[in-house]
Write a structure and sequence with these properties.
The chain has 602 residues and is an alpha/beta fold. The chain has 3 domains: 261 residues, ABC transporter transmembrane region fold; 175 residues, 3-Layer(aba) Sandwich (Rossmann fold); 56 residues, no CATH class. The chain contains 21 helices and 10 strands. The strands form 2 sheets. The protein has a 6-stranded mixed β-sheet with strand order 6-7-8-3-9-10, with helices on both faces. A hairpin with a 2-residue loop joins strand 4 and strand 5. Helix 8 crosses helix 10. The protein is elongated. The structure holds adenosine-5'-diphosphate (ADP). Adenosine-5'-diphosphate binds next to helix 12.
């Protein structure tokens, strides 16, 4: 009962949503329902009057009138159906595009942690099935239409048939229920099979994507893993095909049952009508009318049940769609009246511990640490020590499991997320550039308003001026050749410089660099840090680095070890302390040749 209620609630919510975003869809939909409900009646009823007239008075002018009325009625109704049907189909495309745009905007605003959760990613895929798949929106439209149209027709036919024998109505009902039961079973089975296919489908899509993605393709070619990947795709598709085979068999069973029940019932009804005609309970005109009314009635009724069963199937998809688009963001996005004080940003971690959702172990424990305005902070530690997770919490991609993070004395959970984001510019370890021009990669959505000189100045500061000047279209040269024949590819180091330029352009008070210079050689890294230090003079900066040479610029270094901060202080203090930092520092210094060492460590 609760489940059925939920189905109708979903339907109601979706209906309301559709009506609000595409009124024309709703209008054409209603018009077509009315037209299709009326469509068959003239063909069922008028032949009776024509036959009655032929047998009784046989007046040609009356017969012609009936014929003309029937033809005219049919012509008008069918003309209108032909007119509105393509319009409705077209609205489905519009509606689908609107829902899809809405969906993208929803996904873009969804909490980051949801997009790292494979179960939520499965749900997202199922929601996409509702928008684009054969069991989604399109099927939703046609089945709702079919249910309403056929209910209208059934009411009309019941009215006709009940006058000859009400039991016929009852029998047709029973037959339709049996068929519907089997149809519902087949539909449920088909849904379950499709759900099993979601993850293999995602895997097959992923392999398609990486096989044509420039970032992956070089590795794939030179690792020689084409066959292996292809086999993985084949395996995933095999699971899909097996499930589809099973569904096909279910539908064969269903076909046998429906053919049997409807044929047995039809034989019975025809015999009954012939008997009634023979015993003169009805005349030939009635015979023709009832024959066609019974046939149409049972057809309409089974259409209703079949559409309902299909609708239940669509509802499974609809439910997934609804569940996905109703995920509650945990990160607060409401402004509670906080004023952005971009020139003052004091961040405090107070006893923060954290474990990832659905994981049992804490990856950060009792972190108490503060970042003051204009501080130059370095975060160091071995792989897996928790540095990136610390940054994720700082950026509020996740909320702490325990403890709190304060910005200017206020728990960041209370601060509007949009506003909070305005404090940070970031260069992530796995930063991504876009296949747009140099200028657009730096200025992004401000490209139309910002001057070329301003961008050139920033590119100059990060040391990319030569690269830009030597590129075919200067600042307007595309990064990569995906959309620009004269585009240029960047080396790892150049890419990182461009990502840093982008972070500088957006000019936020706190700059975060998550190992941004790992693709640079130590000297280039050192130089860029040196330069960066001047660039971010009036900003707070937080660097994560494996190369400890850069930490010499920092006011405060936090050494992470196994989820905890074990040492805090500047370079000199930590060297004197003689703990983990010093041993890491000395170990790295030994790895460089004397020349580099001189520049880096003296
Ligand atoms: P670091 O940046 O110091 O190398 P991380 O913060 O990336 O360390 O990782 C700390 C720990 O958290 C590691 O054990 C890592 O496996 C785990 N971890 C990182 N990201 C996730 C995630 N999304 N889900 C679960 N565990 C994660």
């Amino acid at each position: 009962m609760k489940y059925t209620l939920k189905k109708f609630t979903n339907l109601y919510v979706l209906g309301k949503r559709i009506f609000s975003i595409d009124k024309r869809y709703s209008l054409y939909f209603t018009i077509l329902i009315i037209l299709k409900t009326l469509a068959p009646f003239a063909l069922v009823v008028i032949p009776k009057y024509i036959l009655d007239e032929i047998i009784a008075l046989n007046r040609l002018n009356i017969i012609i009138k009936y014929l003309l009325f029937m033809a005219f009625f049919n012509f008008i109704i069918n003309f209108l159906i032909q007119y509105f049907e393509p319009l409705l189909n077209n609205r489905i495309h519009h509606l689908r595009t609107k829902l899809s745009n809405e969906f993208s905007s929803y996904v873009l605003n969804l909490d980051y942690e949801y997009l790292e959760d494979p179960n939520i990613l499965d749900k997202k895929q199922k929601a996409i099935e509702f928008i684009y798949g054969s069991n989604g929106l399109e099927s939703f439209t046609f089945n709702i239409e079919s249910i309403v149209v056929n209910i209208g027709q059934v009411i009309g036919y019941t009215y006709l048939i009940i006058s000859i024998n009400p039991y016929i109505v009852l029998m047709i009902f029973c037959g339709a229920i049996i068929n519907a039961k089997f149809q519902a079973m087949a539909e449920k089975y088909s849904y379950e099979a499709e759900m099993e296919m979601v993850r293999p489908s995602r895997m097959a899509n992923y392999i398609d994507y990486i096989c044509s993605d420039q970032v992956h393709i070089k590795d794939i070619r030179f690792l020689g893993i084409e066959k292996w990947l292809l086999n993985k795709k084949k395996e995933s598709n095999k699971i899909k095909l097996l499930a589809l085979d099973k569904v096909a068999h279910k539908y064969i069973h269903l076909g046998i049952v429906t053919t049997l029940t409807s044929n047995i019932l039809n034989i019975f009804f025809y015999s009954y009508l012939i008997y009634s005609l023979y015993t003169k309970q009805i005349i030939i005109g009635d015979f023709v009318m009832y024959l066609s009314a019974i046939t149409n009635f049972s057809l309409s009724l089974s259409n209703i049940f079949v559409s309902m069963a299909k609708f239940l199937n669509i509802n499974y998809y609809l439910e997934n769609y609804m569940e996905f688009v109703s995920l509650n963001n945990k990160i607060n996005r409401k402004n509670i009246g906080m004023i952005v004080e971009l020139n003052r940003a004091v961040i405090e971690f107070v006893n923060v511990s954290f474990k990832y959702p659905n994981h049992d172990t804490f990856v950060l424990r009792n972190i108490t640490f503060s970042i003051s305005t204009n501080d130059k902070i370095s975060i160091v530690g071995e792989n897996g020590a928790g540095k990136t997770t610390f940054i994720k919490l700082l950026l509020r991609l996740y909320d702490p499991t325990e403890g709190e993070i304060l910005l200017n004395g206020r728990n960041i959970k209370e601060i509007d997320y949009e506003l909070y984001r305005k404090y940070f510019s970031t260069v992530f370890q796995d930063y991504k550039l876009f296949a747009f021009s140099f200028k657009e990669n730096v200025s992004l959505n401000n490209s139309d308003t910002v001057s070329d000189d301003e961008i050139l100045d920033i590119l100059n500061k990060v040391g990319l001026e030569d690269k830009v000047n030597s590129s075919a279209k200067g600042l307007f040269t595309g990064i990569s050749r995906i959309y620009d024949d004269l585009g240029t590819d960047l080396s790892g180091g150049e890419g990182q410089r461009l990502a840093i330029a982008r972070a500088l352009f957006i000019n936020r008070p706190i700059v975060i660099l998550d190992e941004p210079t790992s693709a640079l050689d130590p000297i280039a890294e050192y130089q860029i840090y040196q330069k960066f230090d001047t660039l971010v003079k009036n900003k707070t900066s937080v660097y994560i680095s494996h190369r400890l040479a850069s930490t010499k610029f920092s006011d405060k270094i936090a050494v992470f070890d196994n989820g905890e901060i074990i040492e805090v202080g500047n370079h000199d203090k930590l060297m004197k302390l003689g703990g983990k930092y010093r041993s890491m520092f000395n170990m790295q210094a030994e790895n460089y040749n004397d020349n580099n060492k001189e520049i880096l460590y003296e």
